[in-house]
Amino acid sequence: MILADTRHQLTRDDAQLAARLLARDSGDELAALESRLADEGIDAILDDPRLPGALARHPRAAHASLALFAYVVIRHALVRAGEKDRGLADYVSSIVLHFGVRDRAHRIAPGDDEIYQALVDLCEDLEDPDARRRFLVQTHLGNYALWLSGLFPDYIEQRRWRRGGPDLEYYEEMGRRGFQLAADHRIAEEHGLSTLYASAAERFGTLRVALNNVSDTIFFPAVQTPERLMRQVRDEASWKIK
Hints:
Layout: H1 6-9, H2 12-23, H3 27-40, H4 43-46, H5 51-57, H6 66-80, H7 86-99, H8 119-123, H9 131-151, H10 153-163, H11 168-184, H12 186-190, H13 194-202, H14 204-219, H15 226-241
């Protein structure tokens, strides 16, 4: 089970590196940032709007941990999309980190033997008789739909136009369904996760758009296609209406 624990993985070294990136070799600013770190905690540094740019451009940022990089870029992408809940930033960055390892994106748990290549395959197991496995399938449906539609929207859109594949709205619908089913499961209530999953279901579209921004600007910045432009225009118009 993937937990919202990316921030808990961050170390004192991560905090010190973030502060030094923001200070840009200014001793006075470094001292001020370290004072804020001591008084207000690490979020005072992580939420600084200058930090994503510093991580992208400063040579010293090459030493940043994956957890620090993922949390910062996703947290700030979510804030720009209007989502300020740190718990959701923590959870989404945890999904990205976990699914980036081997074939974890295709398994409901590291030790599970079943490989899922499509959302429809997961839907077939939503009523698994084993309560624990049913819960893991539900959460994975939400996680997998968000990971695919968030980080690989160009692939989804191109497959839609060229092969008649499902569109991003389909992935959003499936993702919401998975997270809402998980929120209603007794295991989520027992572990205090019901609110997190319910929030992910309700705000799935915002999470997807924020991850699209990360994908477009950081992971695949050189891609320029009509499908990407149409998606960006459509999403911008949609959020302006809201």
